[in-house]
Amino acid sequence: MLLHESAEMYLETIYVLSQKEGFVRSVDVAERMGFSKPSVSRAVGLLKRGGYLTMGENGVLTLTDTGAKTAKKIYERHTVLSQFLSLIGVDGDIAAKDACRIEHVVSDETIAAIKAYIKSKE
């Protein structure tokens, strides 16, 4: 299943919330992303059908192995890009917002080069 930017954003949000809170429900995702509950419900259904997450009887969303792997990759891209943009002088808030947009289109090769650059500056 080819993931679109919006699906990647949902996966990243679920991943981040699960790391902070230990469990995630659709209402938590809606609140964090500022989306309506029906929009989140639709996205959750698509991600479930794609094999990226499951939903327990109690409504808790759990990333599958594929979902977790994908979400971690997206989150790492976001983190690397935010760090890089901050390193070159972009304000932290702007860096985070720009990284959020860039993370969905940048190549693995570019991310690897940025990571190497950051490491060389540490």
Can you describe this structure?
There is one protein chain. The protein is mainly alpha-helical and 122 residues long. It folds into two domains: 5-70, Winged helix-like DNA-binding domain superfamily/Winged helix DNA-binding domain (Arc Repressor Mutant, subunit A), CATH 1.10.10.10; 72-121, Diphtheria Toxin Repressor, domain 2 (Orthogonal Bundle). The chain contains six helices and three strands, in the order H-E-H-H-E-E-H-H-H. A three-stranded antiparallel β-sheet has the order 1-3-2.
Number of domains: 2
Q: Strand arrangement, largest sheet?
A: 1-3-2
Q: Structural class of the helices, strands and pairings?
A: mainly alpha
SSE pattern = HEHHEEHHH
**Biggest sheet descriptor:** 3 strands, antiparallel
- Under CATH, the topology of the largest domain can be stated as Arc Repressor Mutant, subunit A
* CA gyration radius, whole angstroms: 15 Å
The 3D shape can be described as: elongated
Helix content range: over 70%
pLDDT below 50 for ≥5 consecutive residues: which ranges? none
- Beta fraction of the residues? 5-15%
The tally of beta strands, per DSSP, is 3
Give the mean pLDDT: 93
CATH architecture of the largest domain: Orthogonal Bundle
End-to-end separation: 38 Å
**Assigned CATH class of the largest domain:** Mainly Alpha
